[in-house]
Amino acid sequence: MLFYKNLIKQTKCDYYRRSIELANNKSKKVWQIVNAALGKQNKKYNFKLSHEGLRITDPKKVADVFANHFANIAEQRVKDHFIDDLSSECTTSGSVPFSMYCAPVTEGEIMNIIANLKNNNSTEPDELTSRILGDIMEEIVCPLTHITNRCLEQGVYPSKLKVANVIPVHKKGDPDNTDNYRPISLLNVTSKIIKRALVDRIVNYMNTFKLFSDAQHGFRQGKSTETAAHEYIQFIQDKMDTKKYVAGILFDISRAFDTMCSDFVQTSVSKSRDQRATRDFGT
């Protein structure tokens, strides 16, 4: 009996290992396996909120409460965490006398961007999915290339591509409280193509002129939370080996992305890029 139990256990381990190895997004696959083993499933909430002393169950009113909350949360979080005036400059990178040039995209680049989109069936505002876009890639690559180049040339980003389906996802705590939800924005899949082309050019520009701090590990190719932790631990070990004291100050900003002030970010970024070419992309 013990033999068969061990055989079943080993077979399950082999199955999970193969599933993870074959997955494009290994971290996501690991969590899917863990949640399945724990019996957790994605919940579809019939939202009911407590707001200003009232119990709200009407779907439209619930949506309005969430919309108002998500629209104003950034400003409120900034006031809670920081001073009122964020106009002061704060950067570790030097200035660059050269403006950023947005080179035109090619059809090959657009096809490569489409091919690297996450292959899913999630519904965006334009009712296109990355899977559908991949299937018709050869037929639409020419107009997509033209549209992307016009956006880069004129610095104008189509307003309709800024529209997103915002889904409130419960994270923890009382489900009746809007503070316990975070917004997930489902953007038009075509907007992801244009943004990818722009991001590639901005990152290339910033890498060329070394505008990224060496201490930045987030959102940089080849770096991650693992490399940040390794560098931090290595620093501590090196100092301790030389009989020196080490002190660390750690900041944990709750809902960090919610505290981003778009005006401040846009002003900071505009100092290191050609504002004529991309002035409308940051708004």
SS class: mainly alpha
- Binned, the helix content reads 40-55%
Q: Please state how the strands of the largest beta sheet are arranged side by side.
A: 1-2
Q: Strand share of the residues?
A: 5-15%
Question: What sort of overall outline do the alpha carbons produce when their principal axes are compared?
Answer: globular
Oligomer: single chain
Protein name: Reverse transcriptase (RNA-dependent DNA polymerase)
Keywords: Nucleotidyltransferase, RNA-directed DNA polymerase, Transferase
InterPro entries: DNA/RNA_pol_sf, RT_dom
Pfam family, one: RVT_1
Set down the secondary structure blueprint.
Elements: H1 2-22, H2 26-37, E1 49-51, E2 54-56, H3 59-81, H4 107-115, H5 130-135, H6 137-154, E3 164-170, E4 181-187, H7 189-208, H8 225-241, H9 262-270, H10 275-278
Antiparallel strand pairs: 1-2, 3-4
Helix pairs in contact: 1-2, 4-6, 6-7
Write a concise keyword list for the protein shown above.
283 residues; mainly alpha; 10 helices; 4 strands; 49% helix
